[in-house]
Amino acid sequence: MAIEAYGNRGGVEGALRVYTVFHLGTQMISKAATVAEYMSELPEDRRKAIDQVRKVIKKNLPKGVEEGMSYGAIGYYVPHKIYPAGYHCDPKQPLPFAGLASQKGHMSLYLCTLYMNPEMEQWLRAQFAENGKKLDMGKGCLRFKHLEDLPLDVVGEAVRRVPLEALIARYDENVAQSKARRKAKTAQKPAAKKK
Asked: pLDDT tens digits, residue range 44-60?
């Protein structure tokens, strides 16, 4: 698949680039048009693991979040009928909620709710430790090589833990803060001297 966490930007800009940054050479890029087609492309061991995580995600998704292909991977997103503005980096795309992908050397679970919520990140770290699992995490990405690396009950709770309304409110707040920071930074730059 083709998504990987992009770490050097703060706020929503960095968080949701998870869905748009492609590092060729480290990921497999799928051109599957449907989730079923994507699943059929996977090796059997990956298909079984992704399918189990997918079942947990789908069972715990907030009402209104939909599953489909998004940026070359399985995506879970808030459709335009619920959030008409869409994803700020590409308003034609729905607002990302989570993603699930088979990468070259691992599988990845992307949780936008995690990246934009420090309390949620602390909770997740504690839950992995409590379950005796080693957490391999980027800003909003959980990497795992085997299904056993993920405590599935914790994954379910992580998906269920942030109500859709709270996700949208936090997203809007982070986008507004990011725009304000950019505007303030631009205002602080000295005017260019004319030659």
From this structure: 999 999 999 999 999 99
> Per residue in 180-192, pLDDT tens?
888 888 888 776 6
Residue 30's Cα: distance from chain center in Å?
Answer: 17
CB burial string 159-182: b at 16+ within 10 A, e below: bebbebeebbebbeebbeebeeee
Per-residue pLDDT reduced to its tens digit, 128-141: 999 999 999 988 89
The residues near 139 (Cβ < 8 Å, ≥ 6 apart) are 5, 6, 7, 14, 15, 18, 115
57: CB partners within 8 A, 6+ apart: 67, 76, 98, 100, 109, 155, 156, 159
Residues 6 or more apart whose CB falls under 8 angstroms from that of 149 comprise: 133, 134, 136
d(C-alpha 2, C-alpha 190), whole Å? 39
Give the CATH number of domain 11-174.
Answer: 3.90.1150.200
Q: How far apart are CA 145 and CA 159, in angstroms?
A: 20
Could you state, in order of their start, the residue ranges of all structural domains in the chain?
11-174
